[in-house]
Amino acid sequence: xxxxxxxxxxxxxxxxxxxxLAWLSRQISQRLQAVVYYLTRSLDFAVILLxxxxxxxxxxxxxxxxxxxxxxxxxxxxxxxxxxxxGRQIGLGSVSVQxxxxxxDSLVGLAPLIFGSVAIAWIGQRVFLAxxxxxxxxxxxxxxxxxxxxxxxxxxxxxxxxxxLFAIGNAMMPSASDREPLLPLLLYTSLxxxxxxxxxxPLTPLTTLLTGLIPTLEDLTSAFVFTITLDILIxxxxxxxxxxxxxxxxxxxxx
Length: 255
Prior knowledge:
The chain contains 10 helices and 4 strands; from the N terminus they run αααββββααααααα. It has helices spanning 2-40, 43-53, 55-71, 102-126, 130-138, 142-153, 158-171, 176-179, 182-199, 204-245, and strands at 76-80, 84-86, 89-91, 94-97.
């Protein structure tokens, strides 16, 4: 039980940081398109600029689908990396993949998130020492944390690595089609876990696995926190730009 108690804060931190990163990704996409539209009055140009802004992450996203499908023995077809507007949805790329069973389809759908998380964790820890910075921010040492954050960005090739981190982190989120097979997978997994517990099978293998995963999950959470900090700064800039170039509110006077 102590293992689960020790892992619970790490798991909660990972889930919260992931959800916040997903929300920020959506906000940045909307605000960037709004700013470009107000400047150019062209929806097409706004979509293309968003595509170019996230291009490295889009390549990783679609490439992850392709690699996962090939590893799972599924046939792949057309590989497209270019924006396409479908109703109110914007597709920045796509890969045609043969349908498989629920496990294969789920792994293919989750591949961008898995590959992207690995890339973010590697960049965050190897380039920016994100674990130390996130620890300062979580502990409330805001001044020290932001000072370390700016120093990390100012390091050798810091802006380039920060851009890759931003592009990958904001392009790896599963699309609507990627999420389709996940519901049955979650149901099957939950049912299997319930049966495992009800039967009374030993929990030692699970606790051992969880104990071994805690350092990796902490590194990933730290990288998420670093990316979230970067996203917040970029989103603030976009809000300011939108306030400057956006439409002015009309005043209404009553006689």
